[in-house]
Design a protein that fits this description.
By secondary structure, this protein is α/β, with parallel strands linked by helices. Helix content is about 35%, strand content about 20%. About 50% of the residues are buried.
Amino acid sequence: MHLRVLILAALVSWACGCTSAAPSTPPPPTATRDATSPGPGAPETKPAAVTVLSGATLIDGAGGPAVKDAVVILKGDRITYAGPRANAPAIPSGPGVRRLELAGRFLTPGLIDAHVHFFQSGGIFTRPDILDLRALRPYSREYALIRERLDSTLRRTLAAGVTAEVDAGGPMWNFAVRTRTRKALGPRIAVAGPLVSTVARPQFDPMDLPIRKVATPDEAEAEVRRQLASHPDLIKVWYIVDPRTGIEPPLPILRRVIEVSHKAGVRVMVHATQLEAARKAVELGTDLLAHSVDDAPVDPAFVALLKKRGTILIPTLVVYAGYGNILGLTPRPTMMDRKYGEPAILAEWRELASITGGVSATSRRRIAAFKTRAPIMAANLMALVRGGVRIAAGTDAGNMGTLHGTSLHEELRLMVAAGMTPAEVIVSATANAALVFSAKPAFGTITAGRLADMLVLTADPLKDIGALAHPERIILGGRVMTPAQIQQPNPEWAAQAQLDAYNARDLEAFLALYDPDVEIRDLPTGKLLMKGRSAMRRRYGALFKNTPKLHCRLVSRMVSGAFVTDSELVTGMQKPEVRATAIYRVEKGLIRNVWFVRH
């Protein structure tokens, strides 16, 4: 790119809004071809005849004790043995047998998000019934973009370690999404059709409404039968209570939906966030509760009811935080969001404050409600866990501020913060979430006979749930892939990760984000200032050692393709402060070029 263009990019970046820094620096990515496509080489199209994984610590997802020095044997896409090496059958050898020595690694089932919506992008235009920006982008255009990016969304989700998802309701084209995932590279998908609702949401595409209001039990039955023709995995009810009329009026509709669905052998998921509405839904026979109760503490009778009925609850803690961040014009992408989130959606988040005209009074009321409900949801989650209710991890991904794939890791972190142990959270995101996908799941645990969907980790998730965010390998149906073979990390991730390492004065983590032959130049002269990691090690090693108060604050950021332009304020050096603009070009997940614009 011509230097004048780069200087212009730097100048433009000064006008951009500031983005928040992440608290930790993940390990560097595996290098691949470029910033957007899978590589190096194509991912496997089919598994090896036999795959032997040996030496890892096995965490089976069913809640059993961790098994050190385990052996897992796969025949094609199925697990034939998983357990201690001492009890393993004879290890096969010869042509068609692949062996992976995983000493020092940890093996878990692939993660499952039990609540997503593919008709939503996670961006600022995706819920016009809550934040109406249709004057800037017609909703038909939002729909079209979501569908155009579907393959990218699936890859990014899988690269984040999510090997299966449950779409908890959307337009009829949801069924085409399920069909598409059988051919595209991505997680396994179960879907529900349009939400059978007690309220209307006409702001969405009127030609294929994702939320359909029904006024009578007969209308509800007709809608369920229409969906049954497409063989849904679930039927979803949006049980929204009108405070003026209370919980009783929708109950005949809910009762009819459950009766018709169960006669057809299809389970029912209900959105009911008020305690008494959730209680009625369970009493009527709902199989799954889509969210935690958020209006009052759950009582022992409610907990006992869920346990007795075997109802599975999906808490979706993260979605309120996502809404609060977007409506408050303070988006806070996590490092996983930056790494695998859709770049166009991250750009929308950055641009949000400049296009909305400020936080509306309605948004302020919503934000206040979210802040009030969040601790109630967390406390209720722990009451349910202690009462023996089955909990499945889910995010409500697709809603504003909650990205597909990456948000599951934040959900798991919030579950631990609420009081669950990492072991309990792993079960919720594997074995339990698989039971939302199917009443008789073929995956979700690492046990003989199950489909081989697994993650190979470099750190122990029983000690730190964040270890799940950094899989070294992802195994889907016996196919062994690196995350970078599925989807290349976003350039912004590399820029942010090196900034975090710089502020931590962690030289090795800092250098790991740079290409071995990196070139650092001055602008506008183009003079070469440094070349290669060795030169950087000498320069930055001395800087980190001699400046204990060194800190770089990100003032603004612009991302354009492989280029990330940061306006920075550096303090803690001999000078009171140093203002700098750095332009990073990221290639194969590593920073290949840096230009410093002189101020």
